[in-house]
Structures are given as structure tokens and as C-alpha cells.
Amino acid sequence: MALVSVSIGPAPPLQAKTNKYKIALCQLQVTPDKDGNIAHARARIEAAATAGAKLVVLPEIWNCPYAMETLPSYAEDIDGGGSPSVSMLSEVAAARKITVVGGSIPERSSGQLFNTCCVIGPGGEIKAKHRKLHLFGIDIPGDITFRESDTFTAGQELTVVDTDVGRIGIGICHDIRFPELAMLYRSRGAHLMCYPSAFNMSTGKLLWDLMQKSRAVDNQLFVATCSPARDTNSHSEYMIWGHSSLIGPFGEVLAAAGHEEATIIGEIDLSLIEAVREHLPLETQSRGDLYRLVDVQREYAS
Ligand SMILES: NC(=O)CC(=O)C(=O)O
Hints:
Blueprint (H helix, E strand, L loop, with lengths): L19 E8 L6 H17 L4 E3 L26 H13 L2 E3 L3 E5 L2 E9 L5 E6 L5 E4 L3 E4 L11 E5 L2 E5 L8 H9 L4 E5 L4 H19 L2 E5 L18 E3 L5 E4 L5 E8 L1 H9 L2 H4 L10 H6 L1
Parallel strand pairs: 1-2, 2-3, 10-11, 11-12
Antiparallel strand pairs: 1-15, 3-5, 4-5, 5-6, 7-8, 9-10, 12-13, 13-14
The chain binds ligand LQR7VSFR.
């Protein structure tokens, strides 16, 4: 395979219609009742818009429990128009003129299942569809064994999307563990990384805060995570950690939930990114003569 190495250039200037805006992270309590979950999510998005949010983010797998055994029966055909979950997101985004990073839902397409996030614009249009790239697999004897790849197929496309509130890079949960992805998104001009997520009790306690802050400070941009709320009555082996957060470009926690259902609202001020990059100019200090990141997808496209 001939691969010509192309180094990542400086991040392009930030582009957004607005420099400051409110973002809402809806940490939803999810139940086995899909219609109920959809109605509940709609109500929380409406409330966030009323509170002034211009961007609303939902959790990973919000229309059904995050349980691999039952999840296929909740899957929806997004491209074929058979998705009540995405239809609701489009309706509410258009009605309230907001951008929605629609968490993720199980998507059925050509006989395969994907863990898929749709980004919806203020006209109700689907602006991007991100299929989880890195499927979560863990095996800690006596603690947790979990394999998404038994159920899902991995996505093949990176997702950076231009919205009314700027350029956003999308990853889903385990995608956050792969720093090169966030670095590529930064190099493509993202100012915000959104990770709909569902960390569990084992990984959450040790790694949740660390991962988010790492991606934010490595790339000097905002990171937003949104998890379902923890269901303490659930008998599922997969207990969700919660703690949805907004992290600033210096690693500062700007807003954070506990483990219960909550909508947290934080402010994104894009001028902070420019200030942090000016005060601590990592880009000009990095040693491109010694190491390089290669944007493989772009390279093959060109
Ligand atoms: N849903 C996930 O991808 C879970 C995950 O990454 C974790 O650490 O928990």
C-alpha cells in the first residue's frame, strides 16, 4: 500500500455565526418504553431551548436501554425514513430553530446494525450522520465483560460538521479513547468535540473525567459529553456512570451533572480557544520535523 505522508497543517481559523452560545446536555433517564423515551427527550429538548440553548446534546443510546441483548429490537432505518426518533429530533430542532447533536440510536441499514448519531440543523435537516467508529470491548475478569462488536458494525467515516454554532467533531463514547481522532478533527477546524456516551461504573470512576479533559487540553478546544442517567433500580450488569460534562480548552469543568437525570447548561465562548492557543501556542511548538499525524481519509480522497 503506497501511503504518501502528509503532515497536518495548522488548525484553520474558527468559523461560527456566533462567538458565544449556550449548550445543553440532556442526561436522560432511559426506560424500555421507546415511545416514552422519545416523548421524554422531546420535552427535555424543548425545555433546554426555552432556557436559551442553541445547541442541545443527547446521550449515547437514548431511545432504549444500553443492553446488547434487547437493543436490536429497537433499531430504526434512518435512511429509509423509518425513524420515529430522528423524526422527533428534526421536528423539535425546526420548531425551536436549534442545532441538535442527537445522541445515538441503534440504526438498521442493509442488514447491519450501527450505533449512530444524527446532527440536526435548525431547519430540521440531517446535517451529518456519525456511526460509532471504535466499538467498545472490555474484559476484566470478575468485573465487566462487554463486546459491542457482537451486535454492532463499526462506522467508516469521520464526522466534522458545520453548524450554526460552529464546526463540531462527533465521536461516540469509546471513540473518545482514540486521541488521533480528536487531533484530526481539530486539524479540520473543529472548535467543539461532542461525545454522546454511556460509560459504566468500572470505567467511569477512573477514566471518564480524565478522557474528556485530555481531549480538551491536547487540542485546546471544548469537549461536551452526554450520558444517560444512572438507573439505580436496573438489574442490568451494565450500570451507567452518568456525569455528563462540558470541559473548556484549558481543561476547566464548565458544567457537570451528577448521576441522576439532569439538563446542564453551559456557555461556549469561542474567544477562549483563541486566547488559550495564543497563551500556550502548542501548534507552533510541536515538532513536525520529528513526528506527524496523517489524515488517511483525506489523503486517499485527494
Ligand atoms: N459505550 C461505551 O463505548 C463505553 C465505554 O467506552 C466505557 O468505557 O464504558
